[in-house]
Amino acid sequence: MSTLAIAANGLRKSYGDKTVLDGIDLAVEQGTVFSLLGPNGAGKTTAVSILSTLVRADAGELRVGGHDLAADPQAVRAAIGVTGQFSAVDNLITGEENMLLMADLHHLPKAEGRRVAAALLERFDLVEAATKPASTYSGGMKRRLDIAMTLVGSPRIIFLDEPTTGLDPRSRHTMWGIIRELVSGGVTVFLTTQYLEEADQLADRIAVLHNGGIAAEGTAAELKRLVPGGHVRLRFTDPAAYRSAASALDAATRDEEALALQIVSDGTQRDLHALLGQLAAAGIEADELSVHTPDLDDVFFALTDTAALPGQTGPTDHHDSRTGQTKETLR
Fold it and tell me: What's the CA gap between 97 and 326, in Å, rounded?
């Protein structure tokens, strides 16, 4: 457990008769990006609010930064930073003044506060705009300032609740670079996002939240293998080689016009090795080979639009050797 930045066991939260979080378990390793995905209203922001001490859980054993959330919330607050969906930037003052205000809130001495503010403004490429009112900043600049303000207290754990919502693609990619830089420095990032590509690009582990529970959790590659539809496509320029391959791979779907075969595959090295072995045994060589696997969009829709994926009968217990916890996964 000592390697976990965030550990939640049996986290529950209801509002009236609506259960938002129904006993979920989360385990986030130090120095990683953990992404929580889910439809609007699934409880992602509620989870962030609880783990960042803004909202009290109804039940659950929760530890953040090694501190018990219920027993020592002040220690948790000292270890974390939070950037929410809506910017905490004060538009009526300058970027530099926003930074100095945050330094005051962290009780930094004046000289130290100015030093930290200057360093972060430079790090986030905001020096030229530092003396301008934040109201003149673009969306991407405000987001960078928002995260810079979060870093004033040197948190080792940062909660980013949909940090790139509303940003243009260039600004979003800039934000991805900032997140990667933070993690390379040992910071743990708990990320919620509505952009599945973002989770795919950044997250070491991803959990999909649905109907108050974790529908599935794993690496992006592991989640993609939950969804059927992966295949290998072989294309040939020689019609004779195509026909020979079609005979050798009788389960393949044929595309006579393109001289191509499509074979169901999960895209793993073992699967590809077996396929290529079949072709080699028949003395056949494809001119092109491409692997197609489901993306996170497919996973998200499959997990949140249906009770279970095709061929699955529901959740089953799975022991996680990393954390010693038993979690529900789909079978």
Answer: 48
Specify whether 210 is located in the same domain as 278. Answer: no
Closest CA to 194 of 82, 37, 324: 37
Q: Are 60 and 12 in contact (CB under 8 A)?
A: yes
Range of the domain at 260: 231-292
Residue 41 resides in a domain: yes
Residues of the chain predicted below pLDDT 70: 1-2, 86, 306-331
pLDDT of residue 330: 34
DSSP letters for 202-238? H-SEEEEEETTEEEEEE-HHHHHTTSS--EEEEE-SS
**pLDDT tens by residue, 256-315:** 999 999 998 877 788 889 999 999 999 999 999 998 878 888 888 888 875 444 444 333
**pTM of the entire predicted model:** 0.76
Amino acid 219 reads T
The token duo for 328 is 């529900």
Do 215 and 235 belong together in one domain?
A: no
Determine, yes or no, domain membership for 199: yes
Chain segment 112-140, per-residue pLDDT in tens: 999 999 999 999 999 999 999 999 999 88
My answer on whether 264 and 209 are in the same domain is no
Same domain, 197 and 158: yes
Query: Does residue 313 fall inside a structural domain?
Result: no
Q: Are 117 and 141 in contact (CB under 8 A)?
A: no
